[in-house]
Amino acid sequence: MRLRLDAINPFIRPNRAAAGTTSPSLAPLALLVLAVVAFRMFFASSAEVSLGTTVGIYTVLALGLSVVASFGGQLSLAQGAFGAIAGYTFAILTVRYRWPSPAAITLGLVLTTAVAWALGHFLQRLRAFYMAMGTLAFAEIVTVLITSQTSLTGGFSGIPGVPLWRIGDVDISSLRNLYWVVWAVAALSMLAALLVLRSRAGRELNALKTDPLAASLLGHDPAYWKRGAFALSGVYGGVGGVLLAVSTTAVTPDLYSNDLGILLFVMLVVGGWYSLWGAPLGALVVTGLPIWLQAYQGYADLIYTLLVLLVLVVLPRGVAGLAADVVQAARQLLPARSNAWQPSSAGAVEAEPEPMAGTTR
Amino acid sequence: MTLTAVQLFSPPSEAQLLQFVFSGLTQGAVLALVALGFSMIYASMKLLNFAQGHYVVLGGLVTWWSTERLHIPIAVAVLLAGLVVAAVAVATRQFLLRYARNQSHLNAGMITLGTGLLIDAVILLQIGSDPVYVRSFLGDQPVRLLDATFARQGVWVIAMAALVMILLRVFYARTLIGQAMRACSMNAEAASLMGVNVGLMIALSWGLSGFIGGLGGATVAPLVGAGYGQGLFFALKGFTAATVGGLGSQNGAIVGGLVVGLLSALITGFADSQAADLVTFAILLILLVVRPRGLLGQIEVGVTAYEPLVT
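ok -> structure tokens follow
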């Protein structure tokens, strides 16, 4: 493996073909908006709308994971716990202390971000699996705290009656309105994540992922960006957690169980964790598949996990990677344009800087 | 079992304390086996097998299946559980990890997590969401010792773990294959130059870790049952044990298992099981931050997620 300076040094403008994920295009965002609107036009039953809403919420949650996993190169299983912290803060403040919703949401988000930052700070030394186990332990602790502090959190039965959400006369937490709210938030989250990854932060995270040692030798502080990535994932987790609470009008330990952390992870894997687009695609597949598999009754779980394993073995870049490959192949079928305007992929490889002496390992 | 208020609020008697310690030893024995399974696979390919806890549950399920449905004698059923889980573990390595198109550690770790979820799905399909309990090996008659009563099955669990530990020690120290496996974990390249079949040794490591996981699960199933969703919990507790002792060291696995088992049994006795989980996982978090290589560990833990895997 050789050092790729353009990937390591965030001050060198990335060569798109070489750096891969560093500078994601904004164009698919329009496609997402189109898909969201189209879904609502073609599917109108309440079950379908609520499915769409769930996909949107999971997209937001999985995006946070994506920031940590695909760009920081870290496995985090704490995303569900971040959602739980924000959701419970929101529910406790509004139901028990009669706070207005915006104030409760703000405090919930601030708290979640702070906790996520602190977790990133303390665990930043850990690599891959140790990070996964550390975040899993953190998630277990949050779950135990939630189920044991009965007076505050309601224990296993949770807190019912999270207030409906109104702006003026419009009840935006009604099923049909919530769909638009959730997807507006999801699209904005997506845009924000894309912008972050197109900025210096994205290149720093990519450097960190490619080779942490080389990045730190070049004077970049992995700890700083890891904390940042975690804090950002906390923001996404918090937003998703509050949306989850609003959509179910109650918070329960089951809603944010450790299974959620793992489910989100499966989404990222299936969707493709090399790309931010893995989050919405994975959320769609993972939420939609069980419904589609309902026909197979008891075998649904089995087929589902087998499919996940299949994706892991044969499609390591997930559904998003497959989509990218299809787009790439389609582009190469249009010879005139690709020859005239942009270097083909073979040209891009040639343009990659030769490794300097001493940088090969 | 009903505790009266007097029992609850009085300090525990010696008999109770003895009971807690015994229950801690029982838990510790199982956790040591899980920790050892983690260690073996980590030593052979620097990979953490997230399905390690599921192996224990699968072992329990196979035992239940063969004793209740097929009416196989329990001794054969325990052995069968070990072999079936070993086969699952070897298959994971042979058919999933080796043929994965993405050979990074991160992807491999996710594949093991996926096999764990698959085992959970099989459990859900076979027995539903409620755990099944295997009959105790020699009846439920509790053992009495110094006013304290112990679950008879606990003796089996501890004995089985001790037997496995001793046999493994002999295997690694005395047999040629055991020495070859150790050589591979030290330096796979050098070992292969010396004529060791590295791939075979890695497959053997997987088989062994599955085997001991299955045996542990078969013996502990009468006490805790085998059910959906227990696997990851076992894995996390076993990983805590491995981290306390130090990943990659057999003594570490024993010490870690006993420390975690005793601690959680004592806290469960004096407070409740939730407090025990809280303390266990807090210890794991703190250890990971302060001393990730554990008390007795020698392995430097620091594999990057994207480093190619040795399969």
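Chain A has one domain: 5-258.
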